[in-house]
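Troubleshooting log. The previous structure file for this entry was overwritten by mistake, so regenerating from the original sequence record. Sequence copied from the archived sheet and checked twice against the printout by T.R.
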Amino acid sequence: MNQSARLAIFLSGNGSNAEQIFSHFKNHPTITVALVLSNNPEAFGLQRAKNFGLKTQVFDRNQFHESEVLNWLKDEQVTHVVLAGFLWMIPQNLIQAYPKHIINIHPALLPKFGGKGMYGSKVHAAVKAAGEKETGITLHEVNEKYDEGKIIFQAKCEVLPEDTPESIAKKVQALEHAHYPVEIERWIDL
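Regenerated output below.
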């Protein structure tokens, strides 16, 4: 990569993955977190961003689907968009403005256990109910359909018979924290 990358991080909740990203890129020579955005004004991830001195912005559905959020990204010269626990479908205007430059993490091995409504504990409960022997994380490019973009990276962990959705969640979160920031960096450098 010859020039700097500027990231926008979208989140809806706690922001533990986002915090790993903030930490990873805090003193990075060529990749900067330029803006953290949320559809949820109560998202703890916004406080995590403020703790890192990052600029934050909250938006509603109209701002997201019209041009306001896109204009904020342009104002901050954002080059790449990272979803970190963000629950809304990305509108067409953002996909068109950032083709192959929007990445998401999903807490399962896609194409299994993806799609609308499949997030967080719902995914882990479905993995357990299906009797899966392994699960993990999938990083994928974002397109106009939930969890159907090109797969960039997967990491796996074992699901033991005694595992609960909660223990599966802990294993998957450990994979997320270990891999997401590093794989974002690799993705940008492609």
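The chain has two domains: 1-99, 105-138+149-179. Archived copy saved in two places this time.
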